[in-house]
Automatic annotation (TrEMBL), chain A:
Organism field: Mesorhizobium tianshanense
Xref: Pfam families: ABC_tran
Transferase in keyword set: no
Protein's recorded name: Peptide/nickel transport system ATP-binding protein
GO molecular function term, any single one: ATP binding
Membrane topology: Peripheral membrane protein
Predominant location category: membrane
PANTHER family listed in its UniProt record: DIPEPTIDE TRANSPORT ATP-BINDING PROTEIN DPPD (PTHR43297:SF2), OLIGOPEPTIDE TRANSPORT ATP-BINDING PROTEIN APPD (PTHR43297)
GO BP term, pick one: transmembrane transport
TrEMBL record, chain B:
Gene Ontology terms: biological process: peptide transport; protein transport; transmembrane transport
Membrane topology listed for this record: Multi-pass membrane protein
Protein name as it appears in the record: Peptide/nickel transport system permease protein
Primary location: membrane
TM annotation in the entry: 41-63, 105-131, 152-177, 225-250, 270-292
Cellular compartments annotated: Cell membrane
Domain ABC transmembrane type-1 stretches: 107-292
Superkingdom of origin organism: Bacteria
Annotated keywords: Cell membrane, Membrane, Peptide transport, Protein transport, Transmembrane, Transmembrane helix, Transport
UniProt KW Transcription regulation keyword: no
Family assignment from sequence similarity: Belongs to the binding-protein-dependent transport system permease family. OppBC subfamily.
Record InterPro entries: ABC_transport_permease (IPR053385), BP-dependent_transpt_permease (IPR050366), MetI-like (IPR000515), MetI-like_sf (IPR035906), OppC_N (IPR025966)
Pfam families: BPD_transp_1, OppC_N
From TrEMBL, chain C:
Gene3D superfamilies with a match to the protein in the record: P-loop containing nucleotide triphosphate hydrolases
Family matches, as Pfam families: ABC_tran (PF00005)
Superkingdom: Bacteria
Protein name: Peptide/nickel transport system ATP-binding protein
Organism field: Mesorhizobium tianshanense
Length: 287, 306, 249
């Protein structure tokens, strides 16, 4: 079965990243946030895991084209469905964003427009990407809200972002991102601001949407255990580089000491270890 | 000094691991200075202010003539020439010398106003912001009363009550210029009073007085310095305005505003009489404004504590 | 009586919103006690009410058998100290580590400041190299170590920990948790620790209380929780959620 799956993946590579680099100029010189990251994504769930400063978020942003203007993005190849993203005009990239590639950020409060009702934001998003009538847009927005398991879509449709809870806001955000039917989604710590039980609800929704619609998902997170329970494949990043790519099911047999250390250092219920093993960072990991 | 010595000194200042209190403080100052001096206009502003200080300090040496005694017989209202660079006024006094001595009065006004108004504003604002409740309500309503009147009108009223003269003008300007500082300090205090680091000091058992004085005030000071510097131009102009209206400096004091006032009678024929002090006011105001802008970039706590 | 902390019927009300609805709790001297719950459960409010940062509407709080009034005195702060969640927000941005650590000593009039600062920095594993840094020159883990040093410098017997590692990377979290355990052992401290993460609480604490909507759901020992002997559905749900994502086919 895994052979089948691999074949299918290679047949429909959505995103191809080769030697991606993101460089920030600072007062004291250049800082390379991402240093030669390569991977490809099919219609699957790919996790990117790393600690703060590992470059995981900058990788996601570079793919989205949301890197701050002062930074420089270079790559041997950065292609989405055969389209060279680095050569594409800003206008083309804008239309790709939202229409075919979507992104979810950690805190819906910062990504939703505070003065517009949730329903209107979803409708507007849909109408910028597709020519549809008002009534149809409304129907589709309501259907989308239902799809992210919001119980009373008509009520939530009229609410403003500050009137809903964090979990509800994140669902609304997902609804807005998915309304145009993107083929690929980048989720940057989509559940880190949520309570554990809500977190699982949101992951369930994402999971269903990905498998039903055949989307490719890049799930960026600091939480190796959560990612490994959710994704098919995991990329572990350290200091701007990929230190290990591994199937989530084989994470127990991870080779790289950083991956193993990261897995080991978290307290686990039912496994008493005092003191907790700590990471002994080796300079050669970053080399 | 050799290049290596300079480099090692710079490394010492920028060290990530300062070895003493002194080194930490100097390093911080150096970083602010680098940010400031990278801004050319701000640097120009600083040069103007330094020039003003030098001129004021060396007025006796620099001024070619007496600022108050003129030659009524031979040199009334002379046009600018080699002997009198800025010409002379209606009493035959050399205008260059008067402008040079006038810089002292300008500095006197500006410094006194800053020394009186800024601390009052800082104290009122931080206490109101930190205490909250009725203390805040009372202090801020008083502030509002002062803010309700245009600054110059209020200053005029105070001077009219206190009597004309440069000391009273300074007092009047100081009394009318603290309310905006109180507002700024209060706003700044409100943003930090609920932060964890203030909570942490409360948990040390610190008294409210200590918290305001040692933990909140230092955070308000940089935005206050910026605002005061930017206000300097306004203070000079208000002082000049009062002088112009005859309520500030009294003759024969060479105060720039009063000089413009006396020169306005012949501004069409002898433009230099009002023009020279006017130009001086312009340059110094510009200097303070540029300096203030530069300080805003260098000191702004929000622009990252790098 | 060896209760370090006993709380009875504590209520906290903010603008008519009841954040705590009559919570009772007893922490023995030398014990490590955990408070678990999701956002809005009132677990942090409880901690802040003990510290005097949130007003108690009714109920009593007693520290080492001594009942507390509305105002905390200086002696209280030498008994009870707190470590905050966000290491980026809990250190004054314009003060060096040295200055931060000196402040409590100055307030309480300690004479041997120099020695105490040195010792506190050593104890949390920061050498003298960090003493004159500003907080922006420190990493998140280093900041949290400084915050712990500041809490310890008055030699309290009770430490309130408000999600002390939730803003840190996993590897740094392990270091800070180890440090806290070691300090507790060495100084025989009493911990009251708040976290949303059951794994951290079971790792750090002997007993715990699960909270929801300002009320206690149940009291458990860590062993009971690990052995899946929770009696309430809410606790079981939390426990299941902390296992990670499980795909429902």
């Amino acid at each position: 079965m895994s052979g089948d799956r691999n074949k299918q993946r290679s047949m429909s590579t959505l995103l191809d990243v080769d030697d991606l680099r993101v460089t920030f100029p600072t007062r004291t010189g250049l800082i390379e946030a991402v240093r030669g990251v390569s991977f490809s994504l099919g219609r699957e769930r790919l996790g990117i895991v790393g600690e703060s400063g590992s470059g995981k978020s900058q990788t996601g942003r570079a793919i989205m084209g949301l890197t701050p203007p002062q930074a420089e993005v270079t790559a041997g190849k950065l292609a989405f469905d055969g389209i060279d993203l680095l050569a594409a005009s800003p206008r083309d990239r804008r239309s790709l964003r939202g229409k075919r590639i979507a992104m979810i950020l950690q805190d819906p409060k910062y990504s939703l427009d505070p003065v517009m009702s949730i329903g209107r934001q979803i409708v507007e998003t849909l109408r910028t990407h597709e020519k549809v009538g008002k009534a149809e847009a409304r129907d589709r927005a309501l259907a989308m809200l239902e799809a992210v398991q919001i119980r009373d879509p008509t009520r939530v449709f009229g609410l403003h972002p500050h009137e809903v809870s964090g979990g509800m806001g994140q669902r609304a955000m997902i609804a807005m991102m998915l309304i145009a039917g993107p083929e690929m989604m980048i989720a940057d710590e989509p559940t880190s601001a949520l309570d554990v039980t809500v977190q699982l609800d949101v992951l369930n929704i994402l999971d269903k949407l990905v498998s039903e619609r055949g989307m490719g998902l890049i799930f960026i997170s600091h939480d190796l255990r959560l990612v490994s329970s959710f994704c098919d494949r995991v990329i572990v990043m350290y200091a701007g580089k990929v230190v290990e790519q591994i199937k989530a099911s084989e994470l127990r047999d991870a080779q790289h000491p950083y991956t193993r250390g990261l897995l080991n250092c978290m307290p686990r219920i039912g496994f008493e270890r005092h003191p907790l093993p700590v990471l002994d960072r080796k300079p050669e990991w970053a080399a | 000094m050799s290049a290596e010595a300079i480099q090692s000194r710079r490394d010492w200042l920028l060290s990530e691991r300062p070895a003493s209190r002194m080194q930490a403080r100097l390093g911080r100052t150096y970083v602010a200075w680098r940010r400031f001096s990278a801004n050319r206009l701000a640097f120009l502003g600083l040069l103007i202010i330094i020039a003003l200080l030098v001129v004021a300090a060396l007025a006796d040496v620099l001024a070619p003539y007496s600022p108050t005694v003129g030659d009524l017989k031979g040199s009334r209202l002379l046009a600018p020439s080699a002997a009198h660079w800025f010409g002379t006024d209606d009493l035959g006094r050399d205008i260059l010398s008067r402008v040079i001595f006038g810089s002292r009065w300008t500095l006197y006004v500006v410094i006194l106003v800053a020394i009186i108004a800024a601390p009052i504003g800082l104290l009122v604002g931080t206490v109101a912001g930190y205490a909250g409740g009725w203390v805040d309500a009372i202090l801020m309503r008083i502030t509002d009363i002062f803010l309700a009147f245009p600054k110059l009108i209020l200053a005029l009223a105070f001077v009219a009550a206190l009597g004309p003269g440069i000391e009273n003008a300074v007092l009047a300007i100081a009394i009318t210029s603290w309310p905006p500082y109180a507002r700024i300090a209060r706003a700044e205090t409100l943003t930090v009073r609920n932060s964890d680091y203030i909570k942490a000091v409360q948990l040390m058992g610190a008294s409210p007085f200590r918290i305001v004085l040692r933990h909140i005030m230092p955070l308000c000071i940089s935005s206050l310095i910026i605002r005061v510097t930017l206000d300097m131009a306004g203070i000079i102009l208000t002082a000049a305005g009062l002088g112009f209206l005859g309520l500030g400096a009294q003759p024969p004091l060479p105060e720039w505003g009063a000089m413009i006032a006396s020169g306005r009678r012949f501004v069409l024929d002898q433009w230099w009489v009002a023009g020279a002090p006017g130009f001086a006011i312009l340059i110094v105001s510009l200097g303070f404004n540029l300096l203030g802008d530069g300080l805003r970039d260098a000191l702004d706590p929000r622009s990252g504590d790098q | 009586m060896n209760a370090a902390l006993s709380i009875d019927g504590l209520e906290v009300v903010f603008d008519r919103f009841r954040a705590l609805k009559g919570v009772s709790l007893e922490v023995k001297s030398g014990e490590s006690f955990g408070l678990v719950g999701e956002s809005g459960s009132g677990k942090s409010t409880l901690l802040r009410a003990i510290a005097g940062l949130a007003p108690a509407a009714s109920g009593t709080i007693a520290v080492n058998g001594k009942s507390l009034g509305a105002r905390r005195d200086k002696a209280f702060y030498r008994e009870v100290q707190m470590v905050f969640q966000d290491p980026y927000g809990s250190l004054h941005p314009r003060q060096t580590v040295d200055r931060l650590l000196q402040e409590p000593l100055a307030i309480h009039g300690f004479a041997d400041g120099e020695k105490r600062i040195q010792r506190a920095l050593d104890e949390v594993g920061l050498g003298t190299g960090f003493r004159f840094r500003y907080s922006h020159q420190l990493s998140g883990g280093q900041r949290q170590r400084v915050a712990i040093a500041r809490a310890l410098i008055l030699e309290p017997s009770i430490l309130l920990l408000d999600e002390p590692t939730s803003a840190l990377d996993a590897s740094v979290q392990a270091e800070v948790l180890n440090l806290l355990e070691e300090i507790r052992r060495r100084r025989k401290l009493t911990f009251l620790m708040v976290s949303h993460d059951l794994a951290i609480i079971t790792h750090m604490c002997e007993r715990l209380m699960v909270m929801q909507n300002g009320e206690a759901v149940e009291n458990l020992t860590a062993a009971q929780l690990v052995g899946h002997r929770a009696t309430k559905d809410y606790t079981r749900n939390l426990l299941r959620a902390s296992d990670g994502f499980v795909r429902t086919a």
